[in-house]
Amino acid sequence: MAEAVISSPKRDHLMATAWRLFYRDGYRAVGIDTLIAEAGVAKMTLYNHFASKDELIIGVLEKRDCELRASINDQVNATDGSAAEKLLSVFDWLERWFGSTDFNGCAFIRALSEYPDPRHPIHQAAWRHKVAMQGALTELCSQAGAHNPAALANTLSLLIDGAIVAAQATGSTAPARSARDTAATLLALAVQKPA
Amino acid sequence: MAEAVISSPKRDHLMATAWRLFYRDGYRAVGIDTLIAEAGVAKMTLYNHFASKDELIIGVLEKRDCELRASINDQVNATDGSAAEKLLSVFDWLERWFGSTDFNGCAFIRALSEYPDPRHPIHQAAWRHKVAMQGALTELCSQAGAHNPAALANTLSLLIDGAIVAAQATGSTAPARSARDTAATLLALAVQKPA
DNA sequence: AAGAAAATATACAGACCTGTCTATTTTGTG
DNA sequence: CACAAAATAGACAGGTCTGTATATTTTCTT
Is B1-50 CATH 3.40.50.970? Predict the structure, then answer.
């Protein structure tokens, strides 16, 4: 018995294919027929695992949210040195991401773009990811000794999202370096000064 | 004779309606039939003025690019005070924008999101806007006395785009304030120090 | 008022969209 | 082996999509 239904090979394979196509081409741009053809799966298999395309998109985003945060966490844990160095290593992670061959911007920013209505469940799923990321960043800022960790995390979030957009627009990894340098400056100020 | 075709009432009206719908709902989400119904115009009128939906989108983006830069320019010129204050007034402009009822994120970031292929003409039109904005920002940074105006403008761009994304995700104007505060700090450092 | 240009309504092509239904085959388990 | 669950192919419904064709009417200019 054990939980059942929560995971199955077909379902996982469907989610992996969906992620790849949605991230490459966009959510509205990829149709169900394209998706199942690429996954090599019958249409009813998809609709037995997901109630609708929107549910599939939300599932993909939630899975990506988990993986992303786990990956960043690994990077931080693998970084030796001070809490400040750990925090800044997030920007090294960014730089590697920007340089990867399939980098195509942030799936969550793109979801916000394609589903701008705040009441739309996909919009909300993307928003939840942003909140979770801010929370993780705040924790890192706190450990790095910032006097106002939430405020610093908030500002670093702006830098990160801005860098992602710039990297997507230009195809360069340089924005990660700019963001990292600025983050280092801001962190130094946030540790010494209360505001 | 005089130039002809470059502007006409129908064409302008079509572009205005297209802008409103595309910005509200997304580029792929709005169909031609919806568009012409909303504009109260025959389909052939649209296709006599624009070769395709993509051309219409590009036209809308280019018009928006002009208007946006003109609006920011007005804000800067209307701001009395030092060059630094003029530069920072861009963030006041942002805050007003975020607070406007029809704010829905950045049309260009959303275009990048929906048309991720760098070879796509819509993607390229959005990219051109980003370049133009950086140029204008660099000029302002230079006048404000930054030792490396391009570098500062680059960083401020990250803050601005990050703030736009955050404002879109949360529906709050607060990111403009965070970005402004950080910009003020960075500007002060960039004026006194060479790097 | 006459002729040219622009805009109109309408139908159409051909493709794609999400989601459902059914009947059959495969797969996994006791 | 036998039974049940899962996956399959394929058709189908009812829309929507972009773009074209055509024939008519309106608008502008001279």
Answer: no
